[in-house]
Amino acid sequence: MKTYLTFLWRCFRLSFVGDGRYYAWMFFLTAVALLGLNAYCRQIVHGLSVTGMTDQVSWGLYIANFTFLVGMAAAAVMLVIPVYIYRNRELHDLVIFGELFAVAAIIMALLFVTVDLGRPDRFHHLFLRFNFPISMLTWDVLVLNGYLLLNLHICGYLIYCAYRGRRPGKAFYLPFVFIAIVWAVSIHTVTAFLYSGLGSRPFWNSAVIAPRFLASAFAAGPAFLILTLGVLRRIGAYEVPPKAFLTLRNIVTVAMTINMFLLGSEVFTEFYTDSAHTASARYLYLGLDGRAALVPWIWSAIAMNTAALVLLYLPVSRRERFLHPACVLMIVGIWIEKGMGLIIPGFVPTPLGEIVEYTPTLNESLVSAGIWAFGLLLFTILVRITVPVLSGRLTERTGYTPDAPPRTPEHAHADAQGGAA
Amino acid sequence: MRLPILNSPSGANGNGGGSCGSGCGCAAGDDGPQGANGPGMSRRSFLRTGTAAAGGLTAIAAALSPLRELEREDAPSLEQFLQKHYKEMTPDDMERALERIRAQVERRYGIRPELRDYKPMDGVEFVYALNISRCIGCRKCVHACVAENNQSRSPEVQYIRVIEMPRGTMDIEKGNHHYDRPTVPDEGHFYLPVQCHQCANPPCVKVCPVEATWQDADGITVIDYDWCIGCRYCEAACPYWARRFNFSKPRLPADQVNPNMGYLSNRPRDKGVMEKCHYCLQRTRQGRMPACLEVCPTGARKFGNVLDPDSEVAQILRTKRVFVLKEDAGTLPRFFYYFDERYPSGLDPEAAEIARRLEHEEGERYGRLPGADGPELRWRDLTPNQRGTLA
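ok -> structure tokens follow
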């Protein structure tokens, strides 16, 4: 117990250690997070009227970000599968980064739901009257929190073992890894069911929503990891085997291809049928009755996704110079597609045929930016702690030794054995 | 970002030692190479840490500062915080809750309300029937509802939406929600008022994560405003766009408060909760008619107990060609519409006569639009009826 507390204390201290760029980055994130907190306090005082949401478009930027982040969190599993099922060792350490990001993404997703509540002070009502299994939202509460715990356990355990120089006991984490694989699929499926289960919204009431969510998530999530690992490599903090990047690139390419295929299927069904139920799709892609706020968004998303996919298909994207822009395009494209492109048009026109458009307000954008900053802050700290532990520079025996030569976990393991003897 | 764990010798950033040196104010001294619990902080780094911590706390305080505007009334009292779910409350609990709300209404509006928890009556299932041939689109029901049910006046929350529909179509997307004619009814249109349909298979109830909304025995779907967490999932689920959310604090002038209140119906709401039509249960569960029906000048609205074979609504359901909106949604509404077979393509002349009389008595103008020049119509945009007039 004492050892564990020392570990936590050292991690806490370590999160304040870094060079100028680290401080600038953390200062920036903290400032944005505080701006978001400030905007949220204004929302608490004045109500959700400080957002652009209305009775017509009753969910907006918050729920859009929530949906996107659930997907990012689920994508960690795309790294776990090759490692534990196909025994692809290159990705072994990457799994931990993926799961750390899953932790940060789930926390962001939960924060986005919380800021969307009209009465956050009544959150405890969920524990007192839980409409399970009827309401899909209760399923979502369960799977999201369960996934958070699973990931906290898996990466917490692996990192703590590396810190103590012990070999992780398989029984303590492997079963959880396999549960997490199934669980990751479930979080995004259940989130898709939140929308696709509503008969009153023909735009969402489609069986392809869940598979499309998964495909786009499995593209955006690993793309984000490619960028993170690229940054870590560039600052010299952590060396990732180049083969790992190629594996990630393959995952992203396949997932994105499936995503574009599903998008095409959906567009075909909507427009070829051309029934009265396609009003939302028409509004999204072409505009309806002269109102077309989402048209530029969705077409830029499609352009970005297509450009990213073309880049990924070309051999040039084996090089970082092309791979990284492709990843950025893809993340932004999918973010738009799932946010502005999926949540908002579900509400336009309303079930009574009224067309009211939605534009996020500054306050609501600040809250959203604040949550993103807080999540990235959390992720940075988690990575900041994990990197020295994995490279043997933060161990139980020696404490934090920034100048020590990098050691593989096997070395650390041997050291620990020696120390114990 | 450059982390001080470079593969190359990292003297460059000055963080080589255990304490973090020039770059930071936090002193990682005890994690230094000397091992745990090395020398403590130097005075300089202590000051730096202190300054940084003070700066951080100031920034957090500044971020939280809008909360000072929060009024005492806005924060939930401990009693409200601990209040149980409606279905778990004992009669004593309910009496305490009612007393708390009465006191709150008195504080806010200076009126002692007649507040009760009206229960459904045995052997009663309420049903609404609306005669479209008699509706003249005057929106009196909309405003009577607002007055009866203590809705927020600014922004005004309305439970009833009257849609002006072109004759010859039932496609609701062709309707106009914001018709603002100097005169109604318009000859080329009919009027379709929509409010909560009190579905027998309500999607809104299904999705609520905390069971803050449910269907009572008399068929009315109610909301406990003290239990709703404001997630608006029900609003997304409703196929009739019947639910309303209090995006801001409801504003209700004290002289417009209706003191006859029900716990599950028209007591004043807080910001951040849902509300909707509840068939005026504070009236109907006492044997009175809903406010929208009472105010209707043409008698287009009929309401009653469908389980009573002699009731007007039971007779209408037996004898008229009734229909419901969006039957394919499978919601089984308790709100029926019908056209009068005697006047298949126009307004009931009696209702038209009433509209003319109203115009005369109330000084309101009900007649034809002054100019009929609108944008040029394309054949595919026209309703079948309009096509008939052109051909």
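Residues 409-421 of chain A have pLDDT under 50 and may be disordered.
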